[in-house]
Amino acid sequence: MLRRHLLLAPALLAPGLARAQAAAWRPNRAVTMVVPYAAGGGTDIVGREFAQLLSQRLGQTVVVDNRGGAGGNIGTQHVIRNARPDGYTFLYAVSSNIVINPHVYRTAEREDPARVLIPAGILANYQYILVGNPRFPATNLAELIALARQRPGEITFSHSGTGGNNHLAGKLLARMAGIDLSDVAYRGTAPALMDAVSGTVQFNISSPPPAIPLVREGQLRPIAVTGAQRSPAFPDVPTVAEQGLAGYAVTGWHGLFYPPGTPDGPVAALRAAASEIAALPAFHEKLGRDGLEPLTAPVTPEAFARQVREEHAFWQRTIPELGIRLE
């Protein structure tokens, strides 16, 4: 359903020309990387690790500019509207900023980032995990679905915000399984998980990093992961699709984007540097600690842009069916 191969800009540089232009353009002052979330969160932590490695390759400081709020919309729109297209400002995004938010936050004042931003590289993939309170009687997805059918609307899951990937993962699961689940949105992942631990809600849908210690300590029980394949962070936990919902997959990625109008030289330079960093074993190790999945093979700019287009189109169709919208 969601595959990891996508695009945006119709005409992309030939590889040889891209390398030549990357070599020709070098920044002569600090570069700003906008992270559309608050400092200290999962996206910010991985982004700062990338920024350090990028600084070494560019020979200039990479300044992290945190502009959180509205599910990543504030920082994303800042890059679209206010960043000078000179190669010195780019966006460190997660997939929801680019392919989901345009269909959730639908107002005339916001521009669609998937249509105007220039994709400069994908760095990592990730998926989500369903974790239940240990006292919740469902120990696998089939039992959860059966229980929800017996008690429609009474089984509740928590998530870190309406319209986010983990919220959509739960809504899509309910629709595909033909069940009625209730959900509660929290201001962040930590309180959403804690209410699953306490039993205030029956289960949570979380990104792996904050869930890993709670599962290891026995405070939460893993039920399923949302990717097309099992998560390296939870190799013994079957996917939703493995447990009966064929075709189900909700995943995300970390990627880089330039504001519209940025010249080819800076775009090619960032693409080349990002490709090198994404292949580093040391970067893979950092991603693994953070519960992310390193790229197993290089992803071309064409493939990444195609992935963006396809995921954008999928959520454009699916979000109205799930009845989710924010103003």
Automatic annotation (TrEMBL):
Transmembrane segments: none
Record's signal peptide: 1-20
Family membership: Belongs to the UPF0065 (bug) family.
UniProt xrefs under PANTHER family: BLR1237 PROTEIN, TRICARBOXYLATE-BINDING PROTEIN
Organism: Roseomonas nitratireducens
InterPro entries per UniProt: BUG, Bug_dom1
Keywords on record: Signal
Pfam families associated with the record: TctC
Protein name: Tripartite tricarboxylate transporter substrate binding protein
